[in-house]
Amino acid sequence: MPTLNDRSLRAVVHSRQPLHYAEGADALLDRPGHVRAASSMAWLNDVIALVQDDANFVALVDPGSGSARAIALPAGEGGLRQFDDGRGNKKYKLDLEACAAIDTSSGPLLLALGSGSKKRRRTILTVDGWRADAPGLTLTDATTLYERLERESAFAGSDMNIEGALVVGDQLRLFGRGNGKAQNGLLPLNATCELSLDALLAYLHTGGLADPPAPTRAHQYDLGVLGGITLGFTDAARFGADVLFSAAAEASADASADGLVGGSVLGVIDVRGRVRYTELCDADGHPFREKVEGLVLARDGRSRALIVIDPDDASRPAELCEVELRGAWT
To answer: Closest Cα to residue 6, out of 268, 324, 237, 221?
Structure first.
């Protein structure tokens, strides 16, 4: 079905809240004072878990105050937890770009996935007991799973880049961002596929040594362009029976590079597969030219969403923004 830029829909940004850690910076942990390079969000009861693509921390954000608690992940190359071009160590980052909360008998389990855009970025993180002072953290080398996803060309396309994850019944739906480059006769794809949640958790329980689950129900989406730049999925959230998604227009040379950002959209994929979206704007109606990386639906209904924007600047905090959804989204 064709994608529709639906002018009856509106997504209006009403507030922007820079995200800072309540604990401040910590040189020993290599933790900055702010949340940087925010990439995906998921609700864990009454707080928002936020993963970052170039910092080894999970931020637990109070959406009311914007204050964040830092959960330190294991240090990376050289004992560091921040990775960027300025330090010359960007290639070592985990590149966690997608996350989802899984209901368990002991509370929600956070699952975060590397983008898979490079071989070093094929790690899956799980966090349980997240309210504790020392949550349970497991980093699994999921290379065999990513290789299986990569072979599913109807999902991976030419340059796989996983940007969103969503629990739908007993499946984990993955969202791939089509901002790469054509190669080997394949094109970059905005696409989804599904993994059996039970099979995925069993695979992770073995430390990635068992056979990985096979992707199913691969589906591609032509999201069109914004300002002459192709739109690509950046996150997704449940929206009743439908799916709410964010997509950004970023002129990237490949799936692992940052580029000029022309703006972002929010849209909905309904149960019949129809796709509609609208460009984000500010309260005065001007285009909102930031890159939206993460998305959750507000807890108080279907008329508000919370997004996080990534300035692609390590010195600047990511910002949590409230968005009013106007019009007939469902």
So the answer is: 268
* Helix, strand, coil % over all residues of the chain, rounded to 5: 10, 50, 45
Q: How many other CB atoms are found less than 10 A from the CB of residue 86?
A: 10
Which residues have C-beta within 8 Å of that of residue 150, sequence separation ≥ 6? 116, 156, 160
Q: How far apart are CA 129 and CA 124, in angstroms?
A: 17
What does residue 93 show for φ and ψ, rounded to 5 degrees? -70, 155
- Model pTM? 0.95
Please write the tens of the pLDDT for every residue from 224-239.
999 899 999 999 999 9
pLDDT tens for 76-109 read 999 999 999 999 999 999 999 999 999 988 889 9
- Token pair of 20, please? 């800072």
40 and 51 Cβ atoms separated by less than 8 Å: yes
- In degrees, rounded to 5, the angle at the alpha carbon of residue 191 between the alpha carbons of residues 185 and 193 is 115
Average pLDDT taken over every residue of the chain: 93
**212 neighbors 205 (Cβ within 8 angstroms):** no
